[in-house]
Amino acid sequence: MTSSPSTPTAQPAIEFASVRKDYLSHGEAVPAVKSLDLAIAQGEFFSLLGPSGCGKTTTMRMIAGFEDPTAGKVFLAGKDVTGVAPNKRDVNMVFQSYALFPHLTVQQNVAFGLERKKVGKSDIKRRVGEMLEIVSLTGMERRQPREMSGGQQQRVALARALVNHPRALLLDEPLGALDLKLRQQMQIELKRIQREVGITFVYVTHDQGEALTMSDRIAVMNSGLIEQLGSPRDIYERPATRFVAGFIGTSNIIDGRVSWSDQGYAVLEKGPGERVVVPVPAGVAVGRDIEVSVRPEKIDLHRTLPGNVNGSLLSGTVTEVVYHGTSTNYTVATTAGSDFVVFDQNAHDAEDVASRGERVFLTWAPQHSYPIGV
Amino acid sequence: MDRVKRTLAPYLLVLPGGLWLLLFFAVPMVTMLSLSLQEGDVVNGFVFTGHWQNYTESLADYQTQLIRSLVYGAITSIILIVLAFPVAYWIAFYGGRRKATYLFLIMLPFFVSFVLRTISWRMLLTDDGVLLHPLKAAGILPDGFNVLGTSGAVIAGLVYSFLPFMVLPIYVALERIDPRVVEAARDLYASPMTSFRKVIFPLALPGVFAGVLMTFVPASSDYVNSELLGSSETTMIGQVIQAKFLSNSDYPSASALSFTLMAVLLIGVFSYARMLGTEDVMKVAAR
């Protein structure tokens, strides 16, 4: 039961083998998922993250059995389930709009799956009771879904799926309809429940914050393909593509040509005294064009030229200053890009802020530059 | 001043419709009620005498027709549920962008007069008409076989006349079902049949209920179908009432029968609502 999430065990819970999915639109095949090879480990909290139309929901619906792949195969616990009806698959889904049965009580909603599986009456009662306790809905058995708040309905949907002990739980943007406070609360709750029941969670979301907070691994999808697959830290710190760098958090992306390189670092000259220093693997030759990503919170903003800079240095003019409470966000027009974003923690003297139009200097350590796709 | 206007506004809005109802519904009802308790004849005029025997006598004379009407109405409604549900289901779930067109097609017969439609049925079903003649000529049906004049012909006509009134409410109920809810049932191990039985049908019940109301009541009191497609063996209570009013000028007896029919239908409808627990069903539908 306690398999380490990041090292897949011999038998993945879910596996996609060269899966493609086309939709017919006006007699033309439009690809929703172009080519998918993926193994999701037993007990893992796995997120499919991407903008709308990237194929993440289609991918999830192929696990549930609501869509069949145009080509390729889907495996659940090593068993080929391609073409198997949804009611014959050992996975359950939490729908975006909850999709509770409006004519049934909470008790009846949660018992629905167990009744179909012909579980004994007393067993059903016990398991429903236990599950309602896990999602903190004890005492609400006789309520109708419409008498409950969004957060409570969400828990019913979760209980209704989890009570069946599925091999995997599929969650389709389950927190989308909740307000921010409740959403953050439910994120923690979901993670707790997942640890408690030890079931594989596949989580579909377009909210990168949500994915970063909860997941063991994330697959970032874009136009029917996985752009990057890795831990939240991997994806944030080492974006594999320009798309990932831009989609996950805020990134400053610098295009440039390697001027010279030394001991695993490449330097991109950006003007007199200005440069971007980036760690690169061996074999990145002088003259090569590369893209470098740097996160706004890693950059230091100086009002006077700092001496003895070890790393990157750029100068520029402040074009926007936005006060955010915990930080001040600057937009700076530099030689390496016209809208460089810098998050400056408001840890220092509150009066010491640069103003619009002021000339400033940006510096960051070499290891905070990341070469995309090198 | 504004406050007065605001309190008055709802009443003013109701006023035209209210007056209309009062004039053309309440007044005739009261007139009819009084008529049903009068005695006399057309020549010498009718006098109010509280003659309640109008009720017992007419009921004794025409209970066969009354019961026959209720049976025809009930059979019609049941056949309609069976016929209309698949049609409504198909339009609601597979109609795609053409839903409105299909609904329009269902309504299309309404653009032709009720009487004309029934007369054309008569021409279809007649002994040597387009339907029966070829079958008889081919020896598939015996020469003496006839459809016109039987209960079957009347009920078939009623079913045809009221089909849209069953399709539309069921369609509306089905159309409101969130497809994700059906998917949820499938996800929770329900076969397509079980999903239908446990989720789709219960959620469509309010529509079926409304459809039964909208077909059973008018079908039971219909007089055109039996007149044109039936025989003396299929006479319905509506025909009796019509004949008493328009041919025999026996107004008190006709009024008494009308009220008896209304009372029976109301009792039927209310006990039906009770039985199905419609209030709960309606609440679900109104969520």
TrEMBL record, chain A:
InterPro entries: AAA+_ATPase, ABC_SmlMolc_Importer, ABC_transporter-like_ATP-bd, ABC_transporter-like_CS, Mo/tungstate-bd_C_term_dom, P-loop_NTPase, PotA-like, PotA_ATP-bd
GO molecular function: ABC-type putrescine transporter activity; ATP binding; ATP hydrolysis activity
UniProt EC number: 7.6.2.11
Reactions accelerated catalytically: ATP + H2O + polyamine-[polyamine-binding protein]Side 1 = ADP + phosphate + polyamineSide 2 + [polyamine-binding protein]Side 1
Domain ABC transporter: from-to ranges: 14-248
Keywords assigned: ATP-binding, Cell membrane, Membrane, Nucleotide-binding, Translocase, Transport
Top-tier EC class: translocase
Similarity comment: family membership: Belongs to the ABC transporter superfamily. Spermidine/putrescine importer (TC 3.A.1.11.1) family.
Complex and partners: The complex is composed of two ATP-binding proteins (PotA), two transmembrane proteins (PotB and PotC) and a solute-binding protein (PotD).
Protein name as it appears in the record: Spermidine/putrescine import ATP-binding protein PotA
Species this chain originates from: Actinoplanes xinjiangensis
Automatic annotation (TrEMBL), chain B:
Name under which the protein is recorded: Spermidine/putrescine transport system permease protein
One Pfam family hit: BPD_transp_1
Main location: membrane
InterPro entries attached to this UniProt entry: MetI-like, MetI-like_sf
Location within or outside the cell: Cell membrane
Domain ABC transmembrane type-1: 66-272
Membrane-spanning parts: 12-35, 70-91, 103-124, 144-174, 199-219, 254-273
Keywords: Cell membrane, Membrane, Transmembrane, Transmembrane helix, Transport
